[in-house]
Amino acid sequence: MPPRLCSFSRLPGRYAIVRLAPDASVSASVLDASGFASVTRTTDELSIVCDEALTPAGAKVECGWEVLKLHGPFTFDQIGVLASCVTPLVAHGVSVFTISTFDTDYLLIKAHQTDAAVAALQAAGHMLEQ
After folding, report:
1. Which residue in 5, 78, 111, 112 has a CA-CA distance of 20 to 30 Å to 90?
2. How far apart are CA 111 and CA 61, in angstroms?
3. What CA–CA distance (Å, rounded) separates 125 from 81?
4. Which phi and psi angles does 31 have, rounded to 5°?
5. What is the pTM of this model?
6. More confident call, 57 vs 20
């Protein structure tokens, strides 16, 4: 079966990936912010992806990310959507951090690699929407 092609767009802004202790609280500024944010708690850590301006003090922070949104929704039985996007990025040496939601997937790309990521996705047949 050929890979599932999709459309995608660039979200505005710069984002940070934040690591906190597993029992840390999530700032209301992150939860109340408009736009994109993601919070994941495990027994090992609390990971937050948020606008760089909202990073909490005292956290381990990796700044300089941009977000590409795959346009879903994708049903759970659609196989290979994320792989069809990540594979060309890997082939072009682009590092990617992924987040999946109920409806879709997001690719976080270091800002200096975003243009190369967009070009790689388009060369693989995915469509950039403005």
Report:
1. 78
2. 15
3. 12
4. -65, -30
5. 0.90
6. 20
